[in-house]
Amino acid sequence: MSVSVFIDGGHGTTGLEIAQRLGGRKDVTLVTLDESKRKNAKARSDALNDADIVILCLPDDAAREAVEMIASDTTRVIDASSAHRIADGWTYGFPELEPAQQAEIAAAARISNPGCYPTGFLALVRPLVRAGYVPVDWPLSINALSGYSGGGKAMIAEFESGKAKTRARAYGLDLSHKHVAEMRRHARIEHVPIFQPGVADTYRGMIVEVPLPLHALPRKPSLAQIEATLAEAYKDSPLVRVAPGDVPFVRIEDDAGTDRLTLRVCGNDETGQARLIATLDNLGKGAAGAAVQNLNIMAGFDPIAGLTL
Fold first, then answer.
1. 266 is known as an active-site residue
2. Model's pTM, two decimal places?
3. Which among 106, 142, 131, 113 is positioned nearest to 296, based on CA atoms?
4. Which are the contacts of 92, defined by CB distance < 8 A and separation ≥ 6?
5. Three-state DSSP state, 84
6. At residue 79, what are phi and psi to the nearest 5 degrees?
7. Poorest-confidence range of 23-37, 86-100, 129-143?
8. Sign of the dihedral through C-alpha 99, 295, 284, 93
9. What is d(CA 150, CA 135) in angstroms, rounded to the nearest whole number?
10. Quick check: 48 and 6 in contact, CB under 8 A?
11. Are strands 141-147 and 28-31 parallel, antiparallel or unpaired?
């Protein structure tokens, strides 16, 4: 069986990464538009309505407009923008997030791809909330650093031209980043977490860290209990792995160039303090890899077909 796939916005960073993962596969037929037809409304509408699965790699407003153009009741959509991540009628495309999530994705017509930062945060936190180790009203915070490719063409050009004049910088200082609503909704917590993102002078890769004062949590879990909870949550996942936390350092590039996600529980049992750390490729499991994984699940293929472990 083969499915036809149209990547709307396929010339952007994420779109090109998705096409690379789908290239050469016999079970996928890529629908493409000639350069002369990319801005032709009818040609684009036909592609959106004729494809079995559409992947939107567009700015939020353009993604919403594209969805409105789809009249076919057989076209299924994966939106890689943040436009529909907390919208009613859309299934959240993080297959490992909940025990029934993959089955919901397989049956859904509208999938919203997770954000890259939320992927790391949710993978670390959601199993602990579900297990009762982290109360739903606990004040959480996230420290994160991403490769500059996550900022799109303008940021890529800034860093690669040397105009950035920095090795790393913090941003989102007004604590109103668009990812926080997504984090709160899908972690199923009461408060918006304090999100402290930054960008580093490396093309791809991401490190997401959640500090936890274990001594202050109601159940006072140990590092081993936290690690065991995460290991149990992802024991059947080929893409999410729990690695030892007794390492001298963790690098932003540890999972760059792959579609996997690595979780570590580091810290000090004597002080009752933990550092939960996720590493991933912001263009892999944080974007294109996640979209391809969702496509595979929706089409009934091997979930990791075309992905790099």
1. no
2. 0.97
3. 106
4. 85, 101, 111, 112, 114, 186
5. coil
6. -105, 115
7. 23-37
8. negative
9. 31
10. yes
11. unpaired
Q: Whose structure tokens read 């982290």?
A: 134
* 10-69 residue pLDDT tens: 999 999 999 999 999 999 999 999 877 777 889 999 999 999 999 999 999 999 999 999
Q: How many residues does the chain have?
A: 309
Res 83: pLDDT: 98
| Token code pair at residue 87 | 């919208």
Query: What token pair was written down for 150?
Result: 């996550």
Question: What is the spatial distance between Cα 62 and Cα 251, in angstroms, rounded to a whole number?
Answer: 35
Number of alpha carbons in the 13 Å side-chain half-sphere of residue 290 = 32
Question: In the chain, what are the domains?
Answer: 3-113+287-299 (3.40.50.720), 116-282 (3.30.360.10)
- Cα–Cα distance for residue pair 242/232, rounded to 1 Å: 9
The Cα–Cα gap between 226 and 231 comes to 9
Q: Which of 55, 83, 116, 122 is catalytic?
A: 116
